[in-house]
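Support request, priority: normal
Reporter: lab tech (M.K.)
Component: structure prediction queue

Hi team, I submitted a job for TonB-dependent receptor from Methylomonas fluvii yesterday, and the status page still shows it as pending. I've pasted the exact input below so you can check whether something in the sequence is tripping the parser. The sequence length should be 653 residues. Please let me know if I need to resubmit or if it's stuck on your end.
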Amino acid sequence: MALNVNILGSAVADNAPDIEDFSINELMQMEVSSASRKSQTVSDTAAAAFVISQEDIRRSGATSIPDALRLAPGLEVAQINASVWAVTARGFNGRYANKLLVLMDGRSVYTPLFSGVFWDLQDTLMEDIERIEVIRGPGAVMWGANAVNGVINIITKKAKDTQGNLFVAGGGNQERGFAGYRHGGRIGDDGSYRVYAKTFERDTFVNASGDRLHDDWRSVQGGFRIDDRISNDSRYTVQGDVYRKTIGNTVVPQTVLPPFNREFNFDDHADGANLLARWEGNFSDGSEFMLQGYYDRVAFSAAALSDSQDMVDIDFQHRLHPNADHDLMWGASYRFIHSTTVNTSAIAFTPNSLGYHNGSVFVQDDITLIDNTLRLTLGTKLEESHFGNTQVQPNARLMWTPDQVHSLWASVSRASRTPARGEAQANVGLGGVPTGLPAPFDQIQVIAQPDPKLRAEKIFAAEIGYRTQWTEKFSTDITAFSNHYSDLVLFRRGELVGLTQSLIWSNAQQDFTTRGIEIASEWHVLDWMRFSGNYSHLKMEIPQDPLNPDIAGLSPRHRGSLRWQMDLPEKIKLDFTLRHVGRLHSTSQAVPAYTTFDARLAYEPYNGVEFAVIAQNLFSPSHPEYKDSSALSLPSSAVEVPRSIYGKLSWRF
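Reply from support: The job had stalled in the queue. We restarted it manually and it finished. Here are the results:
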């Protein structure tokens, strides 16, 4: 159980709205910009788009970004331990799920070292998140390689919307203690700023045997944002963060040599900082531009591998309106990455220090075929990278809106995932396989070996979607998709030399197909009561492969959730969430299906002050969601996610 308390204060711009403030029509008209890099409404977006609002995050009681992502249909969010998640869209899940691109205010947090996202490093003040845009399906034209199965863009509030002071604090049995403070003010006539700081400590999980694990999580983070105008036609944003994380980790056997031939506990440490600047405005001809650059540094030390990485990214886009029927956008970007690793007997990079780059150009035209009714979008991106060579990633989207309450869209896309540096340059110990012979011949060491000639993975995706507002109080959004993958990076067996067996990363010769359907719905029963639900079905047609037996079983076939929100008298708010996740049935992921129930009770005795108590996993006192399959020597059972109860106090003043 965990206890969480949230303190909200005075009448400032980010006061929480009530359910009655969000009509079905307003929800369908919520802004989304990640699908096409321009502001559109959800109902006008030719993609499987979903927006998690600040109100959704607050009323869910989520204290981390992965927990908030559970609200979106089509996303697979599975907690591995107290600080580690597996997050993906439309299959191929895992701790280092590599087919989902994640951004924070347009800054990529997808790591090129092993691909995927280190979710334990991604954080901000949850109250500062304006919305999380989730685009399921390829987004390569706008965002480039690695936006294969989807794009998540975590968008924070403008500084003008966070004026005044905010203090949050709380704690419970899992959320041992947390606190955050934010201050916002004005700069001149048009500018605004904010600064924030936050800290938390999360307790360890307990396994099925009742043993306390070494997976606690501690963090200190701060940051700022400035928004101001340069002129009437242009404005700028500067923002940044700095953080320090300490993450408990249990290293399972990875080699036959000490210290990695046995299980031991170790505290991983990570220090990072980022700085982003964005300039946007209008040219004299009425066209719009955006120039963005950021620097991101992260240095982490772990038992098996330590790495320091510096990334510099520059991105430019230009939006033109050559005539009334064309909305043309083009852009270019360049990214340089320098990574230096400290090798061990468990993981060794060759070379251990490398600087590399990638660059891209894109163009997309939004063509009106019939005014306010039929629109065609054509675009492509040309991208060159150090790993995976040059990729061409086109798409075509068609949007039909016969009236204001119905919309039908379809798309075909091609996207790529470039190989990770780890796949192309690292030798990784995977553990030992018993031989049945006496020592020293009792184990065969299994090593993953790199292939510097790996080709990029490719996907051809076809999607169709239908959105409708049946009544003023009820709406649905349905998407069906079929994804065809080629050149997936998988293991092939190498030579057995003595007591060492190599598994070599290589491009698969066979193709893979996944199909699915995703449904989301909203029903405002009364002005003070709202239901929302979603369901996702996934079918993976994966050829059998004894070296890669787990692919189809890494993701559940069925997932669904139902939320019930009520605004009661005396400023009391009550929220219930029921989630069901189907079983994982691969060799390493023999995790049964589970159902969880969360509840949140909030009371606002004064304007801007809110007390909340949140209880999670009430139906299931403990249940496994995912196993950590980072080595062959897996624990005998999955870590069980415990019941959590916490209290939160928020105060805006």
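The chain has a mean pLDDT of 89. The first strand starts at residue 5 and ends at 9. Let us know if anything else looks off. Ticket resolved.
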